Amino acid sequence: MSTLLSTRHTLLDLANQIHNGNILKVAEVLNETNEIFLDAVWVEANMEGGHKGNVRTSLPAGTWRKVNDGVAKEKSTTRMIIETIGELQSRSEVDKLLYDLAPNKAAYRTNEDMAFLEGLGQTFADTFIYGDVVANPEQFNGLDLRIQSKTASNAVDGGGSGSDTTSIWVVQWGVNKVHFVYPRGSQIGIEMRDLGEQSVDGETSTTKFQALVTLFTLRAGLFVHDDRCIQRICNIESAGSSNTFDENDLITALNRLPYGGVGATIYCNQTIKTQMDIRAKDKTNVNYTPGEAFGRPVTFFRGVPVRKVDAILDTETALS
Question: Would the pTM of this model clear 0.85, i.e. be above it?
Answer without folding.
Answer: no
